[in-house]
# Entry
Amino acid sequence: MFLLAAVLFGFAAASAQQNNEDLKIKPLLGVWQYVEEAAMPDGQTAYIGKQIYKTITSDKKYYVIAGVNVPVKPHESQEAQTSTLTFVTQEGDIVLGSDNSYLEYINNHYLDKNLNNTISQLRYRFNEDNPNVLYLEYNLGGADENWVSEVWLRVMPFGAK
# Structure
């Protein structure tokens, strides 16, 4: 009877921990676009989007996708146009920490193979007025002064159609 109670308690504790993890990652889920913040003359903030996206999924996976404009000239008589070529630049797993931090386990970095199988520590916070604006910081290594800041704008929540 004691063994059965211990097993049930273990399952309940594991389920509670999983629910807590799900609640912690939920605000990070979705498709995010890398942006630059710009102050407008009226005091508002504008977000200038770049062709870099990060997708964070409920199974704690992430993907970074970049876009590059390439010239396209189908026929000699036509004017050159551009098309956007998109590709995954890195993919990996996320392990949530405490105090608004997480680790990115870079499983594959397609632009810099030296980053394969490395770990990046990230700190994050959301804009106080807009939870769809995410501020990320990561350390390039070494002293505490080597933190790099990025701003991301959620362009699609998780599960959107």
